[in-house]
Design a protein that fits this description.
Blueprint (H helix, E strand, L loop, with lengths): L1 E3 L27 H11 L5 E5 L7 H14 L3 E6 L3 H5 L2 H6 L5 E4 L19 E4 L6 H4 L5 E5 L5 E5 L9
Parallel strand pairs: 1-2, 2-3, 3-4
Antiparallel strand pairs: 4-5, 6-7
Helix pairs in contact: 1-2
Length: 169
């Protein structure tokens, strides 16, 4: 299960998901309790939850509440993708609290010139911060480079870590 948060002020050049940058953005607003209920309802069909965006750590209180609730109420794993570096997270008590219950944090700003196109890092400068032993490098090798979602209304959402230009309209 992937939760896309709205709002990001980091402005990484080449970000693959600029639609998530404005606060408010598009899409449905969900409370932490609604997201937890959705994860609980799917827990027999999924392995875990990935928080991405936008920038999850620009909503540290909500992320901390979600992560703690997920750990308390389910056996699901949690991966957080963030543009903040590990030192930036560790130096800010709110951000550090937000990742306290994560199994893996993928940390660092995306850099187009260091694009990888595989795994969850996006660019080679981003670091895996293994917070528990739940996930290993081998678990990330099967992450697809590109995902295409077709909505009920026929809209396409293309996302992922594919090489620049792939999937571009």
């Amino acid at each position: 299960m992937t939760v896309w948060v709205q709002g990001c002020s980091l402005a990484c050049t080449g970000c693959f998901n600029p639609d998530t940058h404005p606060d408010g953005g598009r899409g449905d607003r969900r409370t932490v309790d609604e997201l937890l209920a959705a994860a609980e309802a799917e827990q027999d069909r999924i392995e875990g939850v990935t928080l991405t965006g936008g920038e999850p750590l620009q909503q540290p209180g909500a992320v901390a509440a979600f992560a703690a609730g997920l750990k308390r109420r389910t056996g699901l794993g949690l991966i957080i993708l963030t543009g903040y570096s590990r030192p930036e997270i560790e130096s800010d008590p709110a951000r550090l609290s937000a990742v306290a219950d994560a199994d893996l944090v993928v940390a660092g700003r995306y850099q187009r010139r260091a694009h990888l196109g595989g795994g969850l890092r996006g660019s080679s400068n981003k670091a895996y911060w293994w917070r528990t032993g739940r996930y290993r490098h081998i678990d990330l090798e099967s992450v697809p480079e590109l995902e295409v979602l077709v909505g009920a209304d026929g809209t396409l959402t293309i996302t992922g870590m594919a090489a620049p230009g792939i999937g571009a309209a």
